């Protein structure tokens, strides 16, 4: 790591999310000055300097960023829209507006963009569908799909601004992110913790909601701490500049084993794949009152089920018709060697959620 980290100033877009808040904690520990930009910035991360701004309102960005002179920008945010066309319009504008607002200061040296495996599997409305599904393990040199995709649009905004303004860039493509954040739209680990807690309270088994291919096939995930480490590594490693990287824990697993391990952690019975996909979104659709009652009885910090669980996105991941794993040869060859045991990722998260009174 750089010995001159005290001279580094980071602007993290999406500092309240899974990847953003974990990165903020790591950078502050490393001595960086860290600004966190969000519509409602986090107030609970030590030394994080909050910046409240709406990236879709360019007129507000100049005043909000006055005096903020970042050397590094980490873009970890997105806004879900009803169609992919709107996803492209809105999420590319967020990147473009921010980089345009930062241009006059001329301080940006590097921009890191976090996307994900929809780069290879397709956007929400065509996710892991069709006759030409990608070959796994997924590799960074696989060509873009011939489909509209807001990840591609975000990348193109970064590339254009980098060529115009002379900064370097990196793109990071995690698999399913495992980490703690309330109100996050893609949060499989916390969703499973909430589901397991409800099963325990009701005496019901924890039933596998996804496909047979995901149940029996190989998979991997990304601990938010591993992603944060790769973001820092790529920012400080010249050989990693102007490249895209997959990022996962470094091991593989089968849900047919991990599902039982998760159920055991919560003390509930596990039920495996029964031949039919049973979406978790339907399972949790009417569980809001039950969660509110559970939260009241245990003094939990968040009584709103929808602030914790993102069943729709968990269903996307667990219902895929193919096994999905990711190749990390590109960053490994350049020296990124961080490894994280996946079972420990889940158990660490569950313990953290319990300490913070988010689950009983």
Automatic annotation (TrEMBL):
This is Aldo-keto reductase family protein. It comes from the Bacteria. CDD domains: 5beta-POR_like_SDR_a. InterPro entries: NAD(P)-bd_dom_sf, PRISE-like_Rossmann-fold. Residues 71-360 form the PRISE-like Rossmann-fold domain. Keywords: Plasmid.
């Amino acid at each position: 790591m750089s010995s001159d980290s005290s001279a580094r100033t980071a602007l993290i877009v999406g500092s309240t999310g899974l990847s953003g808040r974990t990165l903020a904690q790591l950078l502050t520990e490393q001595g960086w000055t860290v600004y966190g930009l969000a519509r409602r910035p986090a107030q609970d991360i030590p030394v994080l300097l909050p910046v409240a701004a709406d990236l879709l309102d360019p007129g507000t960005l100049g005043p909000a960023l006055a005096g903020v002179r970042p050397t590094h920008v980490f873009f970890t945010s997105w806004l879900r829209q009803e169609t992919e066309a709107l996803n492209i319009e809105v999420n590319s504008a967020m990147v473009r507006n921010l980089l345009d607002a930062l241009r006059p200061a001329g301080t940006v040296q590097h921009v890191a963009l976090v996307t994900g495996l929809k780069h290879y599997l397709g956007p929400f409305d065509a996710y892991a569908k069709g006759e030409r599904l990608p070959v796994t393990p997924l590799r960074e040199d696989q060509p873009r799909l011939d489909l509209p995709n807001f990840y591609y649009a975000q990348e193109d905004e970064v590339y254009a601004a980098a060529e115009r303004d002379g900064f370097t860039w990196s793109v990071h493509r995690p698999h399913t992110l495992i980490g703690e954040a309330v109100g996050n739209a893609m949060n499989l680990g916390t969703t499973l913790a909430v589901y397991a807690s409800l099963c325990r309270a009701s005496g019901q088994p924890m039933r596998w909601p996804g496909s047979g291919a995901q149940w029996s096939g190989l998979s991997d995930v990304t601990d938010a701490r591993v992603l944060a480490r790769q973001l820092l590594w790529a920012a400080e490693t010249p050989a990693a500049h102007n490249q895209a990287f997959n990022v996962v824990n470094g091991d593989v697993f089968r849900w047919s084993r991990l599902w039982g391990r998760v159920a055991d952690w919560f003390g509930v019975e596990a039920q495996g794949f029964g031949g039919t996909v049973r979406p978790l979104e339907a399972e949790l659709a009417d569980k809001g009152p039950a969660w509110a009652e559970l939260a009241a009885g245990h003094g939990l910090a968040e009584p709103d089920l929808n602030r914790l669980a993102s069943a729709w996105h968990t269903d996307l991941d667990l219902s895929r018709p193919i096994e999905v794993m990711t190749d990390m040869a590109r960053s490994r060859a350049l020296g990124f060697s961080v490894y994280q045991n996946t079972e420990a990722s889940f158990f660490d998260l569950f313990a953290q959620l319990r300490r913070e009174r988010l689950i009983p």
